[in-house]
């Protein structure tokens, strides 16, 4: 009996000092607004998150879902590590049979309408629920989610401090499903001013614009790499800065370019992931700068886009 008593005492002592597992999980949020785009809202809020922290909206690509992308791209682990609210919109097959966000449909890409307004309502709900800092809201997405990221940056520029487009497209590239395929590959070539005019016409906003980080694989045959160049032209024109890089270097061996304003602040940047196909760059592991889980369109190329965005946006 003494042995059993001793064992029980040791176990109780270990349980008393062992850290409690986090109860935070991805959960669905309903009733977040009129939801004209008929999307679903999922959210990850770390336990004990204080008020005044940032919000990141992360949007999945075609055939994916909110939880799979949030975990696979590394955003859930970064939210837990750095302490921010993660909003994960989810497309439904009733809206798009491939579960792509409809970045090419005018009814979903116009301020105050459709899917764009649904995501804006999710952001407002997340800020209300968590007491987040409305000046530190960011949006990112892969493929169709990247296309919808461009939409949100153009239509709600006052809502977002920055964005990250991964294997996505410039705003206003398409106005129908037929147009969308042309934009995806080979891409559409407009002047910088033409691209910029599309953004300026998308909202009445006259103030500062969000910063933009653009990620694209050089071997992407689904969304042609030319779309990265067109996005640079669009957003450097919108920011009123030169369309030639202020500086270039390599990050994890991949070409990286920055486009700065007169004060040296980076407003647009690009990452060209040499040899990568269509997908989200990840680098699974627990080291600094590592994140993500490999899977379909979640490509282990030894650099995690989410981690770099997290650092650039000072989410920690």
Can you tell me about this structure?
- With 316 residues, the chain is α/β, with parallel strands linked by helices.
- It has helices spanning 2-17, 66-72, 75-82, 106-109, 114-130, 144-155, 177-184, 192-200, 226-239, 305-312, and strands spanning 27-29, 40-44, 55-59, 85-90, 137-142, 162-166, 211-217, 247-251, 254-260, 266-273, 280-282, 298-300.
- Strands 1-2-4-3-5-6-7-10-9-8 form a 10-stranded mixed beta sheet, sandwiched between helices.
- Helix 6 (144-155) links the parallel strand 5 and strand 6 (162-166).
- The longest helix is centred in the middle third of the chain and has 17 residues, at 114-130.
- The protein starts with a helix and ends with a helix.
- The model is unreliable at 1-21 (pLDDT under 50).
First-residue to last-residue Cα separation? 51 Å
Order of helices and strands: HEEEHHEHHEHEHHEHEEEEEH
* Proportion of strand residues: 15-25%
Strand order of the largest sheet: 1-2-4-3-5-6-7-10-9-8
What is this structure, in a nutshell?
The protein is α/β, with parallel strands linked by helices. It has ten helices and twelve strands.
Present the secondary structure layout:
Layout: H1 2-17, E1 27-29, E2 40-44, E3 55-59, H2 66-72, H3 75-82, E4 85-90, H4 106-109, H5 114-130, E5 137-142, H6 144-155, E6 162-166, H7 177-184, H8 192-200, E7 211-217, H9 226-239, E8 247-251, E9 254-260, E10 266-273, E11 280-282, E12 298-300, H10 305-312
Parallel strand pairs: 3-4, 3-5, 5-6, 6-7, 7-10, 11-12
Antiparallel strand pairs: 1-2, 2-4, 8-9, 9-10
């Amino acid at each position: 009996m003494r042995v059993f008593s001793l064992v029980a005492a040791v176990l109780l002592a270990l349980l008393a000092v062992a850290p409690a597992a986090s109860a935070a999980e991805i959960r669905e949020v309903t009733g977040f607004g009129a939801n004209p785009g008929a999307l679903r809202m999922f959210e990850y809020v770390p336990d004990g998150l204080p008020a005044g922290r940032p919000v990141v909206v992360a949007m999945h690509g075609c055939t994916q879902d909110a939880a799979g992308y949030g975990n696979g791209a590394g955003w859930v682990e970064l939210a837990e590590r750095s302490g921010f609210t993660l909003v994960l919109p989810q497309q439904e097959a009733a809206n798009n049979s491939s579960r792509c966000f409809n970045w090419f449909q005018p009814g979903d890409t116009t301020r105050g309408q459709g899917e764009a307004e649904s995501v804006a309502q999710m952001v407002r709900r997340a800020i209300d629920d968590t007491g987040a800092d409305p000046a530190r809201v960011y949006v990112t997405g892969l493929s169709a989610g990247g296309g919808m990221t461009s939409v949100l940056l153009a239509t709600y520029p006052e809502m977002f401090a920055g964005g990250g487009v991964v294997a996505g497209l410039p705003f206003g590239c398409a106005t129908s499903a037929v147009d969308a395929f042309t934009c995806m590959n080979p891409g559409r070539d407009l002047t910088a001013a033409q691209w910029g005019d599309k953004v300026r016409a998308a909202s009445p906003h006259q103030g500062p614009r969000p910063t933009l980080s653009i990620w694209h694989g050089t071997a992407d045959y689904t969304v042609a790499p030319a779309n990265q160049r067109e996005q640079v032209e669009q957003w450097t024109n919108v920011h009123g800065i030169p369309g030639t890089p202020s500086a270039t270097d390599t990050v994890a061996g991949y070409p990286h370019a920055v486009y700065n304003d007169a004060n040296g602040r980076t407003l647009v940047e690009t990452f060209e992931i040499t040899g990568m196909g269509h997908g989200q760059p990840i680098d699974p592991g627990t080291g600094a700068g590592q994140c993500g889980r490999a899977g379909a369109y979640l490509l282990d190329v030894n650099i995690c886009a989410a981690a770099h965005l997290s650092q650039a946006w000072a989410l920690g």
